[in-house]
């Protein structure tokens, strides 16, 4: 069995609400926008990049990169650089092929960003092919699932006021969810007040998490971290610039709240110094940026440091969600997986059989490979 075709497909889907709230007026397909105090670009669309890998015996594997901005760049990397390296190779040689792809531009400094996003999409598709070839779910090939139900937290609570965020959290709580992540970064005092409002409304048994989106300096992060510890917060995510490992290490030593990082990192090589310097208590690699192969290796490395995993899962759609479930279930050190209801609903529109997330748990999809089938006709209608 040999790979005969690699096709990358950029997708752009209109949405009314983003992870952090409503779309600003005037945002359109041609213009990305900023949302202060956050510094990253956002899009008025759900943007993602799929890859379809076909073999000479007719099998098809699907992969997806986390590509919330400029998915065409990821697709161009796949078509120009990765496809020629994969065609004619055996898809069962997954570890070999990952290294082949990684080495293509390694010495030129491309061991992160779009290059690794593209590799990750192909890696996921290769795992899907591997499972279909062997007639087994990916988690089986990884060594088995510790549970067929993956615990998750509701992520974002995209409402403009503390009162509205509390109301939204209470709606999810009534549906059986018990863990919630707040998008913050509005100042230590304001963030602490938002968390306190959630704690007062949800009670002591709820798990509350906070994502600061990298906006704080060390002194501010320490002030907020101390307040979050008093409020029983489950983790403090992305408190400072991701390049500053040393300050994260100082923060982790100074506050009792667990420090979570990882959506910016792609490989075990990038996560290693975080573990060596004890700069993080929870790692958050994203399958759409690191692939199944690397996320599983990162989890194994983290386990040796007694560090838990909470894989990042933001705007990845059906393939990315299914891949995240497969690898998360196989981790002995899993904390929780992210769940964004608006993204989940759109993801299911692209699947022949919808994924299920109820009462704080994802259900593991049944079937070989990733366990899901894309509605390719629907996907082609949305191709950018």
List keywords for this structure.
alpha/beta, TIM Barrel, ten-stranded mixed sheet, 17 strands, 384 residues, three-stranded antiparallel sheet, Enolase-like, domain 1, single chain
Topology readout:
Elements: E1 3-14, E2 17-18, E3 21-22, E4 33-34, E5 41-42, E6 45-55, E7 60-65, H1 71-86, H2 94-104, H3 113-134, H4 138-141, E8 149-156, H5 162-174, E9 179-183, H6 188-202, E10 207-211, H7 218-230, E11 236-237, H8 245-254, E12 259-261, H9 268-276, E13 282-283, H10 287-304, E14 308-309, H11 318-329, E15 337-339, H12 341-349, E16 357-358, E17 361-363, H13 376-381
Parallel strand pairs: 8-9, 8-15, 9-10, 10-11, 11-12, 12-13, 13-14
Antiparallel strand pairs: 1-6, 2-3, 4-5, 6-7, 8-17, 16-17
CATH fold name of the largest domain: TIM Barrel
Q: What is the number of E strands?
A: 17
**Class from secondary-structure proportions:** alpha/beta
Element order, helices and strands? EEEEEEEHHHHEHEHEHEHEHEHEHEHEEH
CATH architecture of the largest domain: Alpha-Beta Barrel
Q: How many domains is the backbone divided into? A: 2
What is the average of the pLDDT values?
A: 94
Largest beta-sheet details = 10 strands, mixed
The CATH superfamily of the largest domain turns out to be Enolase-like C-terminal domain
The first-to-last residue Cα distance is 31 Å
Report the β-strand fraction as a percent range.
15-25%
Q: What global shape is seen?
A: globular
User: What is the CATH top level name of the largest domain?
Assistant: Alpha Beta
Give the fraction of residues assigned to helices. Answer: 40-55%
Poorly predicted ranges: none
């Amino acid at each position: 069995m040999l790979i005969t075709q690699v096709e990358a497909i950029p997708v752009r889907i209109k949405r009314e609400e983003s992870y952090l709230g409503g779309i600003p007026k005037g945002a359109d397909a041609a213009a990305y926008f900023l949302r202060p105090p956050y510094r990253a670009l956002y899009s008025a669309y759900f943007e993602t990049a799929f890859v379809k890998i076909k073999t000479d015996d007719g099998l098809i594997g699907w992969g997806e990169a986390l590509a919330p901005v400029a998915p065409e760049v990821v697709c161009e990397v796949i078509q120009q650089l990765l496809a020629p390296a994969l065609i004619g190779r055996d898809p069962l040689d997954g570890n070999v092929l990952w290294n082949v792809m990684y080495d293509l531009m390694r010495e030129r400094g491309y061991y992160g960003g779009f290059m690794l996003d593209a590799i990750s999409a192909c890696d996921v598709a290769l795992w899907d092919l591997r499972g279909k070839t062997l007639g087994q779910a990916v988690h089986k090939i990884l060594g088995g699932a510790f549970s067929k139900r993956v615990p998750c937290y509701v992520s974002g609570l995209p409402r403009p006021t503390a009162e509205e965020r509390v109301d939204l959290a209470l709606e999810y709580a009534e549906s059986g969810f018990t863990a919630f992540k707040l998008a913050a970064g509005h100042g230590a005092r304001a963030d602490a007040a938002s968390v306190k409002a959630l704690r007062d409304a949800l009670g002591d048994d709820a798990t509350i998490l906070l994502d600061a989106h990298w906006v704080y300096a060390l002194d501010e992060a320490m002030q907020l971290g101390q307040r979050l510890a008093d409020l029983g917060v489950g983790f403090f995510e992305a408190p400072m610039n991701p390049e500053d490992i040393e300050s994260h290490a100082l923060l982790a030593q100074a506050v009792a709240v667990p420090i979570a990082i990882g959506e910016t990192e792609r490989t075990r090589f990038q996560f290693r110094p975080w573990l060596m310097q004890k700069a993080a208590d929870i790692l958050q690699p994203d399958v759409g940026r690191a692939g199944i192969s690397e996320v599983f290796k990162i989890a194994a490395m983290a386990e040796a440091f007694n560090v838990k995993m909470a894989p990042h899962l933001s705007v990845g759609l059906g393939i990315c969600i299914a891949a995240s479930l497969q690898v998360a279930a196989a981790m002995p050190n899993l904390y929780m997986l992210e769940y964004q209801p608006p993204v989940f609903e759109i993801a299911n529109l692209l699947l022949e059989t919808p994924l299920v997330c109820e009462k704080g748990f994802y259900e593991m999809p049944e079937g070989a490979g990733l366990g899901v089938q894309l509605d390719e006709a629907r996907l082609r209608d949305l191709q950018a």
